C-alpha cells in the first residue's frame, strides 16, 4: 500500500510489548494465497512444512521450493494521517481551521484495537519422500509486525489554554518479531487414510519495540530509531498436523503451530497514557517476555473432478496481533484451483475474512502457476478494494 510501510517490512523490524500473544496465521506461499489462504488440507507442495506437515507423506515428491511474500493491513490510514499531522505542526502559526483539522485527525486515530500490521516470509524448503513416509528440511523466515497510536486526550484545546493541541503528546509505537526458523519435518501414514506429521524447529528471534512522538517525529526518524531496541534470543518449538483422506477426492486436515508456546524477551521505549489522558514515552526498566501462543487451524479440500480443487480453512483459535493491542484475528478462507493438462497452467482464486473483527473487509485473492518440465513458478496477490489490506507472494520451485 504505502511505500514507507513496505520499507518497514523490508527491514523486517518491529515487536509488541505484552506478556502473552499469538501471531496471526500468515499466508505462506503463492498457491495458498491464490486460493484465499485455504491450504491446511489442500497443500500439495513443500510448504506443507508450514501448513500441515502430515501432507508431506501424502503427495511424496522431491521438491526444492523458495517462497517469499508480504502483507500489509492498514486499519486506520495511519501513515497518511501522520504525514498530514506533521504538515500541520510544521505550519507557522496554524489557523483555527488547521487546528480543528488536527483535532479531528487525532480523534480518527484514537480507536481501540486499530493500527497497521505487517507480516512477511521468505524461505528455502526441501521435501524428500522415504518409502511411505517423507521428511523435509526447511529454513523459513517469518516477520510479524505492527504500528499503533497512543493518543493524548488531555492536550487537545484548539484555542490558547494550559493544555493546547499544539503541545499534544500523542505517540506511535512500532512493535514486532523476526523469527528465523531452521527445521526438520517428518510425516508418515497411519493405515491408508490417516497421516500424521511434525516439524521441529529452532527459532532464532529478534524483537523490537520503539515509540516516537507524532508531533516531533515522523516515519523516517521512527525507522532510524527502531534498531536501538533490538533484543535477540533463541528457543525450540514444534508444529504438528493430521490429514484424513475420507476418499480419493476429499481431504480433511488440522494443524497446530507453536505448540510449546515459546517465549522471547524484548525491551525498548514504549508509550503510555496516564489517568488524565496525557501521553509519555519511557524505556522499559526490565525486559518483558512475549509468549507466542499456539495457533490451530482446520481445513477441507475437495476435488469434484481431477483438475479442480475446492478448499476451505477456519482458524480454531483467535490469534492476537503482535503489533496492535487487543486486535484479534480468526480467519475464514475459501479457494479454488483449476489445472490445465499436466499442470502447465494453474489458475487460482479465493477470498478470506477476519470473522473476529466487525470492521474487517472481505479480501479477494488470485494466483497463477506455470510449469515447464521440472520447473515451477507461482505468483499471487490479495486485495480488499478499500486500500486497507493487500498481499503479494511468489515462489520458484523444482519438483521431481
H and E order: HEHHHEHHEEEEHEEEEEEEEEEEEEEE
User: Rg to the nearest angstrom?
Assistant: 23 Å
CATH topology: Porin
Helix proportion of residues, in percent? 10-25%
Unreliable spans? 1-20
Q: Biggest β-sheet: count, sense, barrel?
A: 14 strands, antiparallel, barrel
Q: Got a strand count?
A: 21
In words, what does this structure look like?
It is a single chain. The protein is mainly beta. The protein has one domain: Porin (Beta Barrel), CATH 2.40.160. It is built from 7 helices and 21 strands. The chain has a 14-stranded antiparallel β-barrel.
List keywords for this structure.
21 strands, 14-stranded antiparallel β-barrel, Porin, mainly beta, 400 residues, disordered N terminus, 7 helices, elongated, 3-stranded mixed beta sheet
Q: SSE layout and pairings?
A:
Blueprint: H1 3-11, E1 20-21, H2 30-34, H3 48-51, H4 56-59, E2 63-74, H5 78-89, H6 96-109, E3 116-130, E4 133-150, E5 171-190, E6 194-213, H7 219-226, E7 231-247, E8 250-257, E9 263-266, E10 269-273, E11 279-283, E12 288-292, E13 295-305, E14 308-315, E15 319-320, E16 328-329, E17 331-339, E18 345-354, E19 363-372, E20 375-383, E21 389-399
Parallel strand pairs: 1-12
Antiparallel strand pairs: 2-3, 2-21, 3-4, 4-5, 5-6, 6-7, 7-8, 8-13, 9-12, 10-11, 13-14, 14-17, 15-16, 17-18, 18-19, 19-20, 20-21
Helix pairs in contact: 5-6
Short structural summary:
The protein is mainly beta and 400 residues long. It is built from seven helices and 21 strands.
Amino acid at each position: 500500500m504505502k511505500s514507507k510501510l513496505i520499507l518497514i517490512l523490508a527491514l523486517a523490524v518491529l515487536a509488541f510489548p505484552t506478556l502473552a500473544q499469538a501471531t496471526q496465521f500468515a499466508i505462506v506461499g503463492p498457491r495458498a494465497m491464490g486460493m484465499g489462504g485455504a491450504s491446511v488440507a489442500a497443500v500439495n507442495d513443500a510448504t506443507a512444512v508450514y501448513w500441515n506437515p502430515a501432507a508431506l507423506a501424502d503427495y511424496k515428491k522431491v521438491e526444492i521450493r523458495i517462497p517469499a511474500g508480504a502483507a500489509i493491513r492498514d486499519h486506520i490510514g495511519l501513515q497518511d494521517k501522520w504525514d498530514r499531522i506533521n504538515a500541520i505542526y510544521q505550519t507557522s502559526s496554524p489557523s483555527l481551521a488547521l487546528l480543528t483539522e488536527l483535532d479531528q485527525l487525532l480523534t480518527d486515530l484514537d480507536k481501540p484495537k486499530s493500527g497497521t500490521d505487517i507480516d512477511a516470509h521468505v524461505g528455502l524448503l526441501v521435501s524428500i519422500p522415504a518409502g511411505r513416509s517423507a521428511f523435509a528440511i526447511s529454513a523459513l523466515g517469518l516477520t510479524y509486525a505492527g504500528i499503533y497510536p497512543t493518543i493524548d486526550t488531555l492536550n487537545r484545546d484548539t484555542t490558547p489554554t494550559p493544555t493546547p493541541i499544539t503541545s499534544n503528546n500523542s505517540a506511535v509505537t512500532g512493535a514486532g518479531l523476526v523469527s528465523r526458523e531452521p527445521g526438520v519435518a517428518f510425516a508418515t501414514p497411519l493405515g491408508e487414510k490417516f497421516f500424521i506429521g511434525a516439524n521441529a524447529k529452532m527459532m532464532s528471534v529478534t524483537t523490537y519495540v520503539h515509540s516516537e512522538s507524532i508531533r516531533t517525529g515522523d516515519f523516517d526518524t521512527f525507522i532510524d530509531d527502531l534498531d536501538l531496541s533490538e533484543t535477540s534470543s533463541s528457543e525450540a518449538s514444534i508444529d504438528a498436523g493430521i490429514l484424513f483422506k475420507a476418499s480419493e477426492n476429499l481431504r480433511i486436515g488440522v494443524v497446530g503451530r507453536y505448540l510449546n508456546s515459546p517465549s522471547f524477551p524484548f525491551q525498548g521505549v514504549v508509550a503510555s497514557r496516564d489517568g488524565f489522558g496525557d501521553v509519555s514515552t519511557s524505556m522499559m526498566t526490565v525486559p518483558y517476555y512475549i509468549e507466542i501462543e499456539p495457533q490451530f487451524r482446520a481445513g477441507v479440500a475437495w476435488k469434484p473432478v481431477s483438475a479442480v480443487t475446492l478448499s476451505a480453512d477456519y482458524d480454531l483459535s483467535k490469534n492476537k496481533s503482535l503489533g496492535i493491542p487487543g486486535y484479534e484475528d480468526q480467519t475464514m478462507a475459501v479457494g479454488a484451483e483449476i489445472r490445465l493438462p499436466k499442470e502447465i497452467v494453474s489458475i487460482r482464486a479465493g477470498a478470506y475474512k477476519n470473522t473476529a473483527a466487525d470492521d474487517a473487509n472481505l479480501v479477494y485473492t488470485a494466483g497463477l502457476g506455470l510449469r515447464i518440465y521440472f520447473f515451477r513458478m507461482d505468483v499471487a496477490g490479495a486485495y480488499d478494494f478499500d486500500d486497507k489490506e493487500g498481499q503479494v507472494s511468489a515462489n520458484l520451485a523444482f519438483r521431481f
